[in-house]
Amino acid sequence: MYHVLLGLGNIDDFVTAFDGKPFEGMTVRLFNPQTKLWSLYWADSTKGILDKPVVGSFDQSIGYFYNTDVFNGQDILVAFQWDKTDPHKPVWSQAFSTDKGKTWEWNWYMNFSRKE
Question: Which strands form 21-32's sheet, in the order they lie side by side?
């Protein structure tokens, strides 16, 4: 990850392979000092475009970020959560809601560790 815009943003790369095929993704995160909200934009090597951002902020060590999307033809609310309670082992998770946030289906977790 590296910082951009005098610290108002950062960018990271995600490089892996799926079914033996190379895959690369990136996140661009921008902080708006007026609203105190972060906008997180994702792009990957399958589409080559920036997705609509998830927008939110941190409450203590947990960040909550939301947007709307369409999944399998259905309107959904998307939640991303960054949990940095343990800064050496942050956890990113994603959930979908088809009922405007009354219930959530948590469908992806990524557990990170700091490179020593």
Answer: 2-4, 9-18, 21-32, 37-44, 54-59, 62-71, 74-83, 91-97, 105-111
CB proximity list for 103: less than 8 A, separation 6 or greater: 97
Q: What's this model's pTM, rounded to 2 decimal places?
A: 0.84
Token readout for 51 is 């997705």
* Model confidence pLDDT, tens digit, residues 1-55: 899 999 999 999 989 999 999 999 999 999 999 999 999 999 999 999 999 999 9
User: Does residue 91 carry a pLDDT above 80?
Assistant: yes
H or E stretch at 30: strand 21-32
Q: What is the Cα–Cα distance from 85 to 102, expressed in whole angstroms?
A: 25
